[in-house]
Amino acid sequence: MDTSIRLILFKEDQINQASDAIETLHNQGIHDKDISVISGVPFTEKMLGRPMAWTRVPLIAISGAVVGFIIASLLNFLTPNLYKMYVGGMPLTPIPTSIVVTFELTMLGLLIATFLGVFVEMISPSYGPKGYHPKISDGYIGILFSCPAHIEEKTCLELQDLGAEMVDPEEVKQP
């Protein structure tokens, strides 16, 4: 089936029309994986009526905290038992100082894993249509979508009725 990539633009204050345009695309049978929203302002998925984008960053962060906790536990409990040295009648593992070390290493693991998780998410490839138009830098909301050729004209007319500015496919800059 022949598909073409189209770009429509809305002014930044036309967020409701942009949301209605995405709903119109859904009604035409265009799936979310075939729609990309580009904007200079970070709009939430909820504002545009899109499904929430799930990432693996929280899972990576929690696993980093668990690794930090395990390392802290090994340092607090294993090391003193390997090299037993009693000092001033204190136990081998004093709990108050162990709490501080455990907290710090758990948080250090969490922070490092979160940074690495965000970095991996940023360099991971994104799927869906890709393109850009200079007006997006001037405060426009761009909706890029792949449309089957047999419904393209009908879809474009419905979107223009919502106030969308259609962009000629030759003007869309491909990455």
Draw up the topology in text.
Elements: E1 3-11, H1 15-27, E2 35-39, H2 45-48, H3 57-82, H4 95-123, E3 140-148, H5 152-161, E4 165-167
Antiparallel strand pairs: 1-3, 1-4, 2-3
CATH topological fold name of the largest domain: Alpha-Beta Plaits
Biggest sheet layout: 4 strands, antiparallel
Structural class estimated from helices and strands: alpha+beta
Beta-strand percentage?
A: 5-15%
Shape-level CATH architecture of the largest domain: 2-Layer Sandwich
Shape verdict: rod-shaped
- Rg computed from alpha carbons, rounded to a whole number of angstroms: 26 Å
From the N-terminal CA to the C-terminal CA, the straight-line distance is 24 Å
Query: How much helicity do the residues have?
Result: 40-55%
Number of domain modules: 2
Multimeric status of the protein: single chain
Overall pLDDT score: 83
Counted by DSSP, the helix tally is 5
Unreliable residue runs: none
Q: What is the CATH level 1 assignment of the largest domain?
A: Alpha Beta
Counted beta strands: 4
Order of helices and strands: EHEHHHEHE
> Widest sheet: strand order?
2-3-1-4
